[in-house]
Structures are given as C-alpha cells and as structure tokens.
C-alpha cells in the first residue's frame, strides 16, 4: 500500500492522467482494500491497509489533485476511485472525518459547470452516496453539510467522554479499532469524530452540497445524466427522517433551488405559444421527455416540454417526499410560480392607448391560462393541489352575492369565461373543466354547492303545479309568442293525473330522459337522418365518466338524498353564483356563439351534471322542480333557448335542408369535400367529451376551408350543438339513475309530458 501511494509516481503535469499508470495504481489500491476486507476474521474491523488510508489522509490528497486537475483528467480518475471504494468496501467509511472531508470537497466540484466533461462520473459518485444514505438514512444530515448537524449536542457529550489527541481524532488513529455499526451508532461515530472547530469543515449551507450538485446535474443536456440525478434527488427526499427533512427545508438550498429552476424554465417559454399547441402537449413525464417529431413540431416545443417535464418532476417530488419537505416545496411553488409570475399574467390589463398593447395583453392572458391548464392536467400531489386551489379560489367558501366584485383570482377568471375574445373564453372554460376533474372538495363547493345549500331555488309554501310548463309561465314569457305555441310546442293545459311511480324509479327516469330528448322540436333535429347518432351513443362514455367521478368524490361523504324542505321556512333570495350564472348566460346564447365556444360551454356543464350530489342532480337534471320566483335552472334556460330558436327558424328559408347540410359538413360527409369549415378553435376540442358524434375541428389553415359558406352558419351550428347537448344530458341522467338501480328522489313528473 505504501508503494502505491508514494508521490514519485505522479507523472509529468502535461500528460493526461489516463495515459499514465495512475488508473492502474488506483485499481491496485481498490483491489487491496477489497481483498483485505474479505480476509478479515471479525466483521466490522478495519484492516491495516484501510487504517493507513484513513490515517495518512490519502483520500484528501487525491481530492486535492482532482480539484487542481493535476495531471489533466485527474478529477475523472478521482471520482471513479471514490465511487468504487464507497460502493465495494462494506466498511462504513462515510463515518470518518478523513473520508467525510474529501467527499464534501468533491461534491463542491460537481454540478457547478453545465456540460462538464466529468458529468458521467459525477452522477455515478452521487448515486453511490445516495445508495449509502438509503441504507443508513441517519447519514443524510452529515452528508448534506457538516454544520448544524442533528447530533450536535450528542457530539459535545461524546467529546467530553472520549479523549482527543491534539492533532487529530484518537478514534481514527487507533489500530484495529472496531468500526461503528450503521444507523444511529454510525451517525454517532461521525459526530464524535468532528471536533468543535471542524463542524463547518469547508463552507456553510449556502455553498454547493449534495443537493445543489444533484440539481446542477438535473439540468444536464445529457438525458441519462439528468434522469439519474433526478432519481437520486427523489431518493434523498423520500428517505429523509423528520430531523433530516427539517434540515433540508431550513438549512439547505433544496426547495429554493428546485423552484428557481422551475421559474427559469417558465420564463424562458416564448410568448407566442399557441394554446392549441400547449393543449396537445399531454403526457409529458419527467421520466420520458417527449422527443420532437416532424409531424407535431412547433416553435417552442422543446422549451415547453422541458418546463412541463420539470413541473411533473416537482409534483412527483412533492408526492414522494417527507411531509415537511412536501409542504415546504408546495408552498414555494405556489408563492414563486403561481403568485409572483403567473397571477400578474392572468390578470394582465393593457394600458390605454393603441391596440398593440391590448393584443399583447390578450396574448399574455391566453398563453398563461393555457399553461396553467396544462399544469393542472399534470398535477397529482395533494399538497400542491391544495396550494393551487387556494391560489385560484381562495380559502373563503361563503356564497357570493350578485353585486359582489371578484375578490379571488377565480372570480376574475369567471369573468374571462365571458370575455370579448372568444379564444380567451374558450381557454378559461377549459381551465375550469380541468379544475373540476381534480379530487378536491373545495372546488365544487366554492363554485356550485355553497350556493345551492338549503335549496333556496325551490318555491316554498305553494302547491305543486299541475304541469312543469305552468311553473315556467310560458304564456307570459316574451320568447314564447303565438307563433311558437302554434308551431307544435303547445303545453298541456289540463294534463292527466301523474302516473304511479314504480318502486324502482323507472317511470321517473324515463320521463327525465324523455324531457331532454324531446326538448328540441322535430323540425330542428337532424340526427335521425344519420346512422349511429342517437342518445345511446353517449351512454357508454357517460357511464365511464360517471363511475370515475363517483370514485373521486366517494371520500367526501356526500348525502345520498335531498334534505327535506320546511314549508314554513320563508323564501330567501337565490343566486346561483357567478360561475353558474356565466354558464347559463353562455348556454342561453348558444345560437349566437361560435361552434368551438359552444362545444366548450356544453362540455363544462356536462362535467358539472356528472357530480353525484343530490343538489346538483336536482338543480341541473330535474325538469320538474318547482322553481322559486325569479330563479332559473338548466332546463328552464334550455326551454327559453328553444323558444328563441322557433322564432329564428321562421326567418331562415329552407331551414331543414340547410341544417342537415351543416351537420354533414361538421361530420365531413359532404360529397366532394375533403375538409369542412369550422370557426377558429382548439383542434383538440370535441363536443364536450362526446363519443365521436361530432368531429374534432380541423386545422385553422385557410386551405382547409370549404369553397362556400352558408348563410346563418352560426345559428345552424348552434342548433346542431344544442341537439347533441340535450342527448348528452339525457345519457347522463340515464346512467346516474338507472331504471333498476339507485335513483334520486325527484319530483314526480306529470303524465303525458313531452
């Protein structure tokens, strides 16, 4: 061993290390240490060669040579040697000061220079350290930094009990001293070997440590190096004890460095990203970064993939980390990314002046909304979801009043759903649709349920109406003129008595389904002329989505039935909330809005109707509720839309033929046309989540437009969407209240309705 470590074997300073006998000598040293350990009779004892290595600080000497790159390439050789020694020697070396010091020095050399030639060796070195920490989690705080260790008090007690020599540590220099066991005894051994004057051996916690070294390697352009570094960092935060996790949060740059890189990636995104391109970037994982392809390539794709991949990694870290680290990292992401960067962009208001600032303002809102939607789609960790919900909806769950101005970001975003820009409205509606699919009860409670509690939308103290139409006062509604009533939508003035409802609820379910299916008059229907366009095409998808929604909300303990009404309770003003009011206002303009916007509005309403809460059942899917004066429900809004439609039909010549042609255009069935016309919109958006009944909008390239455009195009497309939406609601009602299964106790419908 002595011959192998003599300094005369150092070659000329200009000769690369790998062309000298240095690699051979280091290999011989490793072989000797491994062979000696195998020959030791007593397990856990240090042999003479290992003691020589420790006493004469050979590892520190090698570290100094590696830091100086003397000879050239020496750092690579030293990193390889350290990795092999720590991996192959079973003796707990990291507990010794003469090993701990050079390990800290090597960590300070790694991950600091992007694209370093020794990245591969650096990540191998950190992998071995993380493996040792996994075996002995008590090592984590000591590897991270020698200062502020958990065993500081214990070390001072041990220092008084064990005599120290003036120049070193007696424990380390005694021959044949029994090595400490792993676990708590190993950590205690290191504490006793760190004198008071060396508790901070080479720097404070602000300098590079194992964490910053790993984060630096995570930024490597070499995919394998970055992936291995991310796996190592994930391992550290997952095995950390309570004390180590506290140290990671309070005394290491762990959370700030991770979030700083996330913010840097976000700010490097180009401002011209198309929301449609952002929406197509699904399924990006930190383990499988997307490779750019010619077909799906767009400007900024690699930058977007890098940001979404790192966000997914942060979300995974928060899921797997110790609770202390998880909470701190989630709060840091919310504060630095959501509040400081994203919120000003979402609320961007253009200064008065020319139109250019307004365009930039709209583009900022549009891009940031689409990016927030993409982040919500990838978000899985409960801690980060709580922070995101608090960021969007606040913590106050009290119902709002109609005159209240928005006091949360969510309130402003609801206004964006009714923006002058259709693109901003679509992007924000898509954001809320994604939010509604997250497993957090406050979302649906803040947006919907807090306004429906107590059922103030139901009339009190009045007898049940003879028919549902009586509750709407159709004759007094300005939409329902004599022309409309003469068109065949004449309500029954004296209906027969209500039928007897079977115990299984079959009659009620049938009437509910028929109410939505027959809402659109026959002259405005076109699906009967095409195959496979009945409402049953929606049932399969609706059933799967309802099951998924039910399993998501099952832990929330929602009541199975409606609370009884007190007939003596005075009526109180009802406000459906800003979110439902916006949706009802939007659906009431379905005949005037662009096709893509109508698709998104109906998709959000369908998501809401799927929730298995009795109040949502009643308010959105019961056509027979006795509404209080001035209140409206989804069905009542749709009835008034039909009234408006019947007036418009009279002003459109050849309405049935044009309507059928528009449907065939939307489905790509017009003979001789390879593409069909659609208004600008997100190419990934379909009619709600329909089972392919209406097609995905094509590219917005003008070359994809057909050679003609019908008059009343928006109206005709709105009628098609309206018919499909009613079929979708019927399918949802059918799967929520199956004829032979549990059903909601709705009010009994009058016989002969529809």
Automatic annotation (TrEMBL):
Residues 153-187, 672-702 are annotated as: Disordered. Residues 170-184 have a biased composition (Basic and acidic residues). Pfam families: DUF5917, KELAA, RAI16-like. Residues 576-668 form the FHF complex subunit HOOK-interacting protein C-terminal domain. It comes from Tursiops truncatus. PANTHER family: FHF COMPLEX SUBUNIT HOOK-INTERACTING PROTEIN 2B (PTHR21705:SF9), RAI16 PROTEIN-RELATED (PTHR21705). Belongs to the FHIP family. InterPro entries: FHIP, FHIP_C, FHIP_KELAA_motif. The gene is FAM160B2. This is Protein FAM160B2 isoform X3.
